UniProtKB/TrEMBL annotation:
Domain TonB-dependent receptor plug: 48-156
Gene3D superfamilies referenced in this protein's UniProt entry, alphabetically: TonB-dependent receptor, beta-barrel domain, TonB-dependent receptor, plug domain
PROSITE patterns, alphabetized: TONB_DEPENDENT_REC_3
Originating species: Halopseudomonas sabulinigri
Protein name, UniProt field: TonB-dependent receptor
Membrane topology qualifier: Multi-pass membrane protein
């Protein structure tokens, strides 16, 4: 009932607002330069023409937010959920789903996908782009597989960097603050007669959260990041341009011991053996490296016909190596046989051996085990229980393991844009992508996947009040198979800058290499302890190999309007999104059961208001109401029923700027989030061509909740950092 009321009210609002103000805005249309967006259909469109809801975070908003990383900027997007697994690992989800596995957003940097092929996620910390080089971030809120292929299931985030001609000269910036914040940026831009080039070096560092597990022991989730980005634009002639980039980043993320022993911590202690396993807790830090090269060639064949070719190659590495200790039982052939037959049985035996349940092992297993192997599983469990006794006075088995993975991608895309007449435009194209993931731990070697995409979108305007759009993407993956994602949209224009839209779309997300093709077991090296051959680790997570794509059907009614006389832009969206055949299982070595058995449904409304009240004042408000159902409780954690933001940006005399931004969400993994950010900045002219900018950012938590997980806490609700930027 509540959802229906929200739908009706939003529909009336969409119809009534333009009618009350439109009469005063029409005379200004002749002098208005319409804004355009690029990331919806691959066609340049005014906001009122987009077949869906767009959020554009421009440079003023990005700077006013004071954000140090991209996920913090995305809090300004209605319906975007920001979750922290730890201080150096952030997850971004639109409308939610699994709190630890952000699998359903396509993220682009100037058209290059940074969505990892091996693990369906985005490593936000490793993206080799400095905030200072970003021109705007365009966010398509809703499924957009029709334009960008599988993995754009919930939306598309396109990070668009500044053109090198806008960053000529030298810029130096240093930021220092609480929680170990220490950032820096050095940028040099230069030009020739027909080209502009920018070189940016940057780094970030912080200590993460502050919680202490033991007195004097720091919570290890800090990060250190260094980046380099070389970008150039070359005007070949009057109709041809070439833009290219080289980018790299090197990251170190702190991490705790990332190994769960078969035996160890528990209520039942047999002696020093268990203590030695529990006390062995080396760090499992992650070293990351990203490299990318891309080139974009554009040519105007005629004023109404253009062609572009995008090519890029990228390589990522995530390296984590350490020495683990466990019971020699971890290499027991009997335990491996039990684990192969029933991973749940192996886990229950482990649980029984480390706790005192007051019953026999077979009686304990009766509570959980069933099926044709029931008696045999009980025999194996009892044999393992007896085998353990011979190791009570022995040393643990210790060995070197790793969770290293290297991923690469090569992509070639051709896109053609054609305007036949004033009523009809087309964009079409095709691409080929080759993905590879290599890991002895996760895949026992390398796995490859080739993807072919063919896409198109037609825009037809039969009358000044009507606009129809039809688009789709056909995609064929060697590992998963083919899929087609269509989208149909209809706009009715109440006035040139005001439209009501009706959108129906279908989208897919193909399972990543890990979900479908993983063969995860630890390749043991330098083994010590009382272990006889064969030295085979007991557990292996094996992907089913036959997972199909997740499927979404989305329906949307929306309104977009620009009231130029009032400096007001408004976007409303009422939506229903249903995802079926979902894989909601966590990615781990034990109890790994990927499947297509989950589903989720989201209904609700979103509003986005941007009001440039005066030349000095800008107000911006976002709100999202999301009513959701999910068959898996894991998909219910990162969806806030109510969330939003409110911002006031002001330019004061004497080159002073201020911004006040409120962020709120009533449920992020069952925790409330409210924060108030203040940024105060002033420019100082130094000579005729130099300028110094000093800025103070203060963040104050209005609640006392942890961020996503209970251990994600700070010692203080207040966080501040000061930056100094010199441009000359």
């Amino acid at each position: 009932m509540f959802t229906n009321r929200i739908t009706v009210l939003a529909g009336f609002a969409a119809l009534s607002l333009p009618l009350t103000l439109q009469a005063t805005t029409d005379p200004l249309l002749d002098d208005l330069e319409l804004p355009t967006v690029l990331s919806a259909t691959r066609l340049k469109q005014a906001p009122a023409e987009v077949p869906g809801s767009m959020t554009v975070l421009d440079r003023q908003l990005i700077r006013a937010s004071g954000a140090r990383d991209i996920p913090e900027i995305l809090r300004l997007v209605p319906g975007m959920m920001i979750g922290y697994r730890r201080g150096n690992q952030i997850n971004v989800n639109y409308h939610g789903t699994n709190v630890t596995e952000a699998r359903r957003l396509q993220v682009l940097v100037d058209g290059r996908s940074v969505y990892r092929p091996g693990f369906a996620t985005v490593d936000w910390a490793e993206i080799p782009v400095a905030i200072e080089d970003i021109d705007r971030i365009e966010v398509f809120r809703g499924p957009n597989t029709a334009a960008y292929g599988a993995n754009a299931l919930m939306g598309v985030i396109n990070i668009i960097t500044r053109h090198p001609r806008e960053t000529l000269g030298t810029s130096l910036k240093v930021t220092k603050g609480t929680r170990g914040v220490s950032d820096w940026v050095a940028r040099q831009g230069f030009s020739t007669d027909n080209s502009q080039t920018r070189l940016t070096l940057s780094g970030m560092q912080d200590d993460g959260f502050d919680i202490y597990e033991e007195p004097g022991q720091e919570y290890r989730d800090g990060k250190r990041l260094n980046r380099v980005n070389l970008s150039s634009a070359f005007q070949i002639d009057a109709t041809n341009t070439l833009e290219w980039q080289l980018a790299a980043s090197e990251t170190s993320r702190q991490g705790y011991y990332d190994y769960s022993p078969f035996l160890g911590s528990g209520a039942t202690r047999l002696g020093q053996f268990d203590d030695l396993i529990d006390e062995w807790q080396p760090n499992s830090d992650i070293r990351g490296s990203d490299y990318a090269a891309q080139a974009l060639w554009k040519t105007d064949l005629t004023p109404d016909h253009s062609l572009q070719v995008l090519a890029y190659a990228q390589h990522t590495e995530r390296l984590s190596e350490w020495r683990a200790c466990d019971s020699p039982l971890a290499f027991s052939p009997t335990l491996k046989e039990l684990s192969d037959l029933s991973p749940l049985g192996a886990r229950r035996v482990s649980r029984y051996l480390t706790h005192n349940y007051g019953v026999t092992l077979r009686e304990y297993m009766e509570r959980f085990m069933y099926g044709e192997y029931y008696d045999y599983l009980g025999d194996l469990g009892e044999a393992i229980q007896q085998e353990r006794l011979q190791y009570v006075d022995s040393e643990p088995a210790c060995f070197d393991i790793n969770q290293n993975i290297r991923e690469s991608r090569y992509h070639l895309e051709v896109q053609d844009t054609l305007r036949l007449n004033e009523q009809l435009r087309f964009v079409s194209g095709a691409s080929y992508r080759q993905d590879r993931a290599k890991s002895e731990t996760y895949f026992g070697g390398a796995i490859d996947n080739g993807i072919v995409q063919v896409f198109g979108n037609a825009e037809y305007r039969p009358h000044q009040n009507w606009l129809f759009q039809l688009g789709g993407m056909y995609e064929d993956s060697e590992l998963v198979g083919d899929a087609f994602s269509p989208r149909l949209a209809m706009h009715y224009f109440l006035a040139p800058l005001h439209s009501i839209r009706f959108v129906y779309s279908e989208a897919v997300r193909t399972p990543d290499m890990y979900e479908n093709n993983v063969n995860w077991t630890y390749q043991v090296k330098n083994l010590s302890g009382p272990v006889s051959s064969p030295q085979t680790y007991y557990v292996t997570a094996v992907g089913p190999g036959n997972l199909g794509p997740e499927k979404m059907r989305s329906r949307e009614v929306g309104y977009n309007g620009t009231f130029h006389q009032y400096g007001l832009a408004l976007d409303l969206r009422v939506f229903q999104e249903r995802i079926t055949e979902m894989d909601s299982e966590p990615l781990k070595i034990t109890d790994f059961y990927p499947n297509n058995e989950s589903s989720a449904e989201f209904e609700g409304a979103e509003a986005q208001i941007d009001w440039r009240a005066t030349y000095a004042d800008r107000f911006r408000v976002t709100y999202a109401y999301v009513d959701f159902e999910a068959s898996s409780e894991l998909d219910q954690r990162l969806t806030a029923r109510n969330s939003g933001s409110a911002a006031w940006l002001r330019s004061w005399p004497a080159q002073i700027e201020s911004s006040v931004i409120y962020y709120g969400a009533d449920q992020l993994n069952e925790r409330r989030f409210e924060r108030l950010d203040l940024r105060l900045a002033k420019d100082f002219d130094i000579g005729q061509a130099s300028q110094l900018n000093l800025a103070l950012v203060v963040q104050h938590r209005l609640d006392d909740e942890a961020l996503t997980w209970s251990e994600n806490l700070y010692d203080s609700r207040n966080h501040y950092y000061l930056s100094a930027e010199l441009n000359f």
